[in-house]
Design a protein that fits this description.
Strand order of the largest sheet: 5-2-1-6-7-8-12-13
Order of helices and strands: EHEHEEEEHEHEEEEEHEHHHHEHHHH
Helix content: 40-55%
Shape: globular
Low-confidence stretches: none
Strand content: 15-25%
Number of helices: 13
CATH architecture of the largest domain: 3-Layer(aba) Sandwich
């Protein structure tokens, strides 16, 4: 089997290095300076146990690839780029191949199922950063990352077992899950901090606004009848298999959304994180002003090219009060 890793950032880069160094056939899809750096020198993965480097073929677009029936496509881009990627895959000839959504949020699997019939959901627990071309950092130890994998919407399959086996052989811990969206809704609760630390920095991730955003989400889940797993840092499996480690010279930057601001990526995924709770609230008649506000605020910061944590608490408090008054 060949793994096509679509999006060589923090998640995709860590996967590409781990899988290729374990002998699996990997082909990456990257863009811009990251594409050029990988072509020239391979990709460097920094970990608490030391640095690893892997060289693997990389393309700029699916149209450059001759897909085989046994290929498995791992989507690792941000959700705002998923629709374009799915269309490109279909036009490139992908049809019956397995599509694995290794992404934050809960919207990707439904998007992928509009185009393809064999879609896997994957809950990704992997603290990692990508800031400079040619290098990614994974802070998890002893495993780089922790994954729950299942068919969408429910069940498991031979493809699920194949992906689990490959990841377990490559420095990760992966588990088949009969109802993977439960795990993904649990991870979404954690990702509500992305909009908050984008504006206020990592110091706000466990603060008042984070608690308010989670409370709104729990109310929405109750109204919508959404079940979820506890996949947080206190989860026993996570404590055993993946703790946050130190990588000298590579301090954590914050959430994946904060990293997008730090890189000046020009877009941000919070509309599919905090914005997902706002959407569900509107559908089920539950007020979600904090999540709706931070989704809008993060999008504005991205459009303005602001750095993560560029706002102060007093300013955010004022802006939130104005937002609530106008809603």
């Amino acid at each position: 089997m060949r793994f096509i890793i679509y999006g060589i950032g923090a998640i995709g880069g860590t996967l590409a290095v781990g899988l290729s160094r374990s002998g699996f056939d990997v082909l990456g899809i990257a863009r811009g300076p990251q594409l050029d750096a990988i072509k020239a020198n391979g990709l460097r993965l920094r970990t608490p146990e030391g640095d690893l480097t892997a060289k693997f073929p990389v393309a700029a677009h699916p149209s450059e690839i001759s897909f085989s029936p046994g290929d498995m496509v791992l989507l690792t881009m941000k959700t705002q780029h998923t629709e374009e990627a799915l269309q490109a895959l279909r036009l490139a000839g992908v049809r019956h191949q397995t599509i694995a959504c290794m992404q934050n949020g809960v919207a990707n699997e439904r998007l992928a199922s509009r185009y393809f019939g064999n879609v896997l959901g994957v809950t990704v627990m992997m603290p990692a950063t990508y800031l400079e071309p040619g290098e990614v950092t994974a802070f998890g130890t002893p495993k780089h990352g922790l994954f729950d994998i299942g068919r969408f919407p429910t069940g498991t399959s031979a493809e699920v077992e194949t992906l689990c086996d490959a990841l377990n052989a490559s420095g990760f811990a992966a588990f088949a899950h009969e109802d993977v969206m439960r795990a993904k809704y649990g991870k979404l609760l954690m990702n509500l901090n992305n909009g908050i630390d984008s504006a206020l920095g990592a110091k706000a991730r466990d603060g008042e606004y984070a608690q308010q955003a989670k409370a709104e989400a729990l109310a929405v889940y109750a109204a919508a009848g959404i079940a979820f797993d506890d996949v947080g840092v206190e989860n026993p499996r996570r404590k055993e298999l993946m703790q946050d480690g130190d990588v000298p010279g590579s301090p954590p930057v914050g959430s994946s959304a904060a990293q997008s601001l730090a890189r000046g990526a020009g877009s941000i995924e919070t509309d599919y994180l905090n914005g997902e709770i706002a959407l569900l609230g509107r559908l089920h008649g539950v007020p979600t002003p904090v999540n709706a506000f931070f989704a809008e605020l993060a999008a504005g910061l991205s459009a303005q090219g602001k750095a993560p944590g560029s706002l102060g608490f007093d300013e955010v408090e004022r802006l939130l009060a104005e937002y609530k008054a106008q809603s």
